[in-house]
Structures are given as structure tokens and as C-alpha cells.
């Protein structure tokens, strides 16, 4: 079913029709991420995160994410990669304060407040953008502050919250000015978006910085003994069959 067909179905009152492109939301098991699928759950509302964007510097950017919320409370993102497929349209009420790209990237332009509106699948959702160029950063926290990962490849998304002098708290996890560094990248890596990935057993410290403030979170990666030994093999020199002397064994 194409987007135009979906629109006609919805206008005709067929509310139990929606578009999906997530494998988990395709009940018949078909997988084709480049195709628009239809299932029997209805679209209730659109959601957009973050709901409030707070900037303290001109030129700062933050990515918006729009989700379609279905009648069974499940959701799937109409993200930047898919925005053209779902015809997601973004607009700001005061373009002199902030700009928004066709994929939902918001850029701070000047002090003030504005609304960003996203429209898709016949519905709209809004986020508030507040820009205060005189605000002072007073602190930064990482959530969670301690991370336990139990296998190689396990991941944890960080959330970065800043405290401001006007009493507000702002989520700057995905802002362009937020940086992440792993003190022990052989144990745990961290992406530019704050996604931590376990690479080996051990400990690491993740530092997140925004403007003049920073904070750290500890990461502990533990691997079960059976998993740690599963890749070991024991070998002996192939030329030795019998020996009255000790054999030299090696673990590879």
C-alpha cells in the first residue's frame, strides 16, 4: 500500500491501517526495509523527542525523532533515514530563533522561544525550542552514572542532563556540542551519540562534556568464565609422541 492509498483509506474511516517499516512490527514475518508495510494496528498519535530543546549558544544543533504510536502502545520511528518515505515535514513558528532541516535537525539562531512542528501520516506533533544565550551552565550529570555490561557487544545508551543557572534542566545527549570520551576504549567504546558498547572484560570511565561542564560514568564489563574460555585451544608440539621430559604446552 502506498502513502496515497493509506491517506485514502484513513479518510474513508479505515482507522486500523498504518504504515510500518520495522521488522518487529510486521506480523506476517516479511522483511523488506525498503518497502512500506501495512498491519492491522491503528495509528493513534505522533510523538516527538525531545519535547523541549534548550540551547545556550548560537549554532548548536539537536536531532528530533518522530515516532508513530500505535493502538497497542507500540511505536516505530519515522527517523531521518525514513523521513522522505513517510513524508515527514518540519516547520518552525519563528525562523529567526531556530531553523529545522528536512530531516528534523534543529539549529539555534538567536535568543528566544519557538515551536517546531512535525507533520506525518495526517497528524502533527510539536516540540518547544528555547534559546537563552545568557544562561550559565552549573552542572552536568550522566544517566545512568554506573553501567554494568555482561557480554561483549552489550550496549547502553547514556542520557546527558545539564543544570542551568535559571533552574532549568536540559537534555543535551544528542547536541552537537556534547562530546564523549572513553578512558579505556579497549574495554568499552562510546559513540558520538553517547552509545556505550562493551568490547572486553574490564573497567572503563566515560567522560561526557558540554561547554564548560563535564561528568563521568563508570563502566564494568564482566564476561562469564565459560564464554571467556570458549575460544581457547591447547596444543603440544606435533612431533612429540612420547617423552620422559616435560612437554611444553601453549594456549592459543
Helical run tally: 2
Give the C-alpha Rg. Answer: 25 Å
Structural class: mainly beta
Order of strands in the sheet with most strands: 4-12-11-8
What's the shape?
globular
Average the pLDDT over all residues and give the rounded result: 76
Q: pLDDT below 50 for ≥5 consecutive residues: which ranges?
A: 1-40
SSE string, helices as H and strands as E: HEEEEEEEEEEEEEEEEEEEEEEHEE
Helical proportion?
under 10%
Q: How many strands appear in the DSSP assignment?
A: 24
Strand content: over 45%
The major sheet is characterized as: 4 strands, mixed
Distance between the termini: 55 Å
Walkthrough of the structure:
There is one protein chain. The protein is mainly beta. Helices cover 6% and strands 46% of the residues. Strands 4-12-11-8 form a four-stranded mixed sheet, with no helix packed on it. The protein has a four-stranded mixed sheet with strand order 14-22-21-18, with no helix packed on it. Strand 21 (202-210) and strand 22 form a beta hairpin. The radius of gyration is 25 Å and the shape is globular. The model is unreliable at 1-40 (pLDDT under 50).
Amino acid at each position: 500500500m502506498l502513502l496515497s492509498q493509506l491517506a485514502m483509506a484513513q479518510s474513508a474511516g479505515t482507522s486500523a491501517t498504518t504504515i510500518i517499516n520495522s521488522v518487529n512490527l510486521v506480523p506476517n514475518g516479511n522483511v523488506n526495509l525498503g518497502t512500506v508495510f501495512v498491519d492491522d494496528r491503528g495509528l493513534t498519535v505522533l510523538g516527538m523527542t525531545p519535547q523541549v530543546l534548550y540551547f545556550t549558544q548560537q549554532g548548536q544543533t539537536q536531532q528530533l525523532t518522530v515516532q508513530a504510536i500505535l493502538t497497542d502502545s507500540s511505536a516505530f520511528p519515522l527517523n531521518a533515514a525514513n523521513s522522505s518515505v513517510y513524508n515527514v515535514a518540519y516547520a518552525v513558528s519563528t525562523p529567526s530563533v531556530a531553523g529545522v532541516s528536512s530531516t528534523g535537525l534543529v539549529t539555534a539562531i538567536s535568543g528566544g522561544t519557538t515551536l517546531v512542528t512535525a507533520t506525518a501520516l495526517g497528524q502533527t506533533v510539536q516540540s518547544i525550542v528555547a534559546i537563552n544565550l545568557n544562561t550559565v551552565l552549573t552542572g552536568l550529570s550522566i544517566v545512568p552514572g554506573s553501567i554494568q555490561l555482561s557480554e561483549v557487544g552489550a550496549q547502553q545508551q547514556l542520557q546527558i542532563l545539564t543544570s542551568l543557572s535559571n533552574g532549568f534542566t536540559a537534555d543535551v545527549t544528542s547536541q552537537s556540542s556534547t562530546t564523549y570520551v572513553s578512558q579505556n576504549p579497549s574495554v568499552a567504546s562510546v559513540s558520538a551519540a553517547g552509545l556505550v558498547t562493551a568490547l572486553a572484560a574490564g573497567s572503563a570511565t566515560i567522560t561526557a562534556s558540554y561547554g564548560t561542564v563535564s561528568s563521568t560514568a563508570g563502566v564494568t564489563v564482566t564476561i562469564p568464565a565459560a564464554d571467556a574460555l570458549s575460544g581457547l585451544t591447547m596444543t603440544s608440539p606435533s612431533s612429540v609422541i612420547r617423552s620422559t621430559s616435560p612437554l611444553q604446552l601453549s594456549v592459543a
